[in-house]
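Replying to the earlier thread about multi-chain prediction with a worked example.

Input:
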Amino acid sequence: MAISAVARETVFALRRQIAKIEGTLPERLQAPAGAPLDADASPDLTIVRRGLAAALPDAFLPVGVDPLDAALSGGLPKAALSEIHGLETRDAGAVAGFALSLASLILKQAQGLPVLWIGTAEIFREAGFPYARGLQASFGIEPEQLLFSEAPKLVDALWVAEEAARMTALAAVILEIRGNPQRLDLTATRRLHARAQSAGRPVFLLRQAAEPEPTAAPVRLIVSPAPAVPRETVAGPLAGSIGRPAFTISIGKSRTALPGQFTLEWNPDERVFDERRGEEGRAKNPVPVVSLSGGRKDPAAASGAVLAFPAPRSSDAISSATGDQPPPGQRAAHLSPRRAG
Amino acid sequence: MISHRQGNAQRISALDERAEALHLKRDMGIADARAMHPSIDIVEADPEADRRLLEGLADWCDRYTPLVALDGADGLFLDVTGCTHLFGGERAMLDDILSRFLHQGFDVRAGLAPTPGAAWAAARFCGDRIVDGGEEEALLAPLPLAALRIAPETRASLESVGLRTAGAVMAAPRAPLARRFGATLLLRLDQALGRLDEAVSPRLPVAPLSVERHLAEPVTLTEDIERLVGLLATTLKTDLERRGEGARTLALLLFRVDGAVSRIALGTSRPMRDPRLIQKLFHERLAALEQDIDAGYGFDLVRLSVLAAAAFDMAQADLTGEVTDDGADIALFADRIRARLGEGAVLQPVAVESHLPERAVAIVPFSEAPRRTTPPKRQDRVQAPKTIFPPERPIRLFRAPEPIEVPATEMPEGPPLHFRWRRALYRVTRAEGPERIAAEWWRQAPGDAAASTRDYFRIEDAEGRRYWLYRQGLYGGSQSAPRWFMHGVFA
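Result:
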């Protein structure tokens, strides 16, 4: 047994080496299915790139919905920058709601630490200022646990975010930016990501009405609102009522996940996510849920043709972030034009 | 030559030596002066600018003593009690003041005396004189009545009875003087002679602690200033430790060689005495003010003052020597952000007892101590019953409710079917409500138009976005049609 354990160790070390040379190590290397497993071997055979911090067992924040967690290989990385996109400014409620649900999940573990929400004056004017009463009711975040920072300019917001991202005394940092400003480029996200990694705290970058850009964040999720199911009563669903908040999440970028879409429901009482149940709940819903399947036709066609991904990667601007290219099936969703909302 | 308007005539208010040489005098009419010398150059007086200049000089005089007061339009009082030894004695200090002012281009007269009144007289009527204690009478006796700081009317009436010098007034019996010329005359006299105390009210409150460094070679670089702040803060630390306090408000005064003074103040969330942290805060502040501070020829005096201090609690470190205090990290973080971006850069919400949504949360600048906006709850007071189902509140609220167009509602009191917000049309698929929220009548002036009630609806549009709308006013109730507003968004 001891020999096989040593052999397995060697195999993994070699694999790690190979992957390092190749430079494109996937987040996890599964042990071969047929490999003999020792009784004393840990069941977690995940090897994660970038240092030990990410390889710790609680490196991921499980969303709590199995298919999404599986797609993200365990959840959102805890010590990292995560981008959460909204297609239009008027989706700001859903985007902020999803980020706050994640913050609420984090606060369940990190009791007492505050959450800092940084935004530019522009986004707070356009999308509304966070309302502490609503956050308390919907996400269980007490007003004392909230800190806001409103920066007049994007540069200042980024500076505040960088300073905040390195703090271990904050449970999470939310940075909200509108549009695709030049300042928020690959370098800026890389700086944020590096600080979040060293502090071991998540930074959620909310980007309202933004196009996907090369980013250092390992995960990019695109959030759009989903119609809520009616409220449940003792006598069944209450027709015409608006129940728990629901979000449609699509994975825009992830090193491990395939593109996919998930409809989640936030349960404010338990402070957990539920996956939207099957069709029987939806049949009574007077509003048809918009199909967001990967191969759908865009409601508003983007200008220009959507081309298939060229097989050999051309050395265009995006190639600087090789791993950041959204998969081909995903592109159509991002190319819908922005509307002023 | 500078003119000012007095009554209906332009008169000379100030003039230089060359004008004086032409036999022109103050308070002479401009027309007369022009008639005598048509080529004189006359500038309109600007009392505001004079005032600013005097205040600038007062700031600069802060380097000698923290107690500087303005005196009328053209004088400064410096209370140098206990400060003279720092400059090598009274004479050396006076010479230093005069020579520095001369180099800055000011013609200054100074006097130093045990009482403000005597110093005033010495500066204006003797020039560069130091009066020791007990000499006030000898100083004042030969001086004209103007040296007593009395009103011109009193002076004129005193002169009319033959009292032309201060000595003559001092020699005269007091009771008739008081009866005839009022108490002010004797008050001024007693103050000048030191029989009565006269308080000089300083312009700025005196800092409880200050440390400063005179520099032989003026500094211009921000890095040098930061390093000096670190050195000064180290000195300050011992003083703060002795008093068991930490700084809450700090001010950095930079005295430029040519007299301009930059004053940089910053506040801290919790009492602070660590020089490293103080230096860090000023680093941020100086970085933010980089454009505003003009070093010019450099600063030759740097002073760090503690304007407000509070009791400092020592934190007990554990055996590894590490103090784990997350609050300190956040306080320092907030201080740094605020030092750079201003007081409102880090905010925190505070719940307020109000049912109006926009008043229910107050956004205040971050501070360590929890603020109470409501009186502390007493057990014997009747508590409002808590509802099991709290009302739904949005997660984002617009600063000002945005007007929306509602063409039609199903029922007069019901939710809208469509609405137009920010030029886009929305179709309402589901709605919950109304939740009626009345204005707070106890906060409104009688007859205020904004007193109408609001009916709030929770709306979901065709794409699943959830909004919080309200209708202000009622249909048919008042003469004007009710208006609709968008107030917030839900998750």
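Chain B touches chain A through 52 residues (CB under 8 Å).

Feel free to reuse this layout for your own posts.
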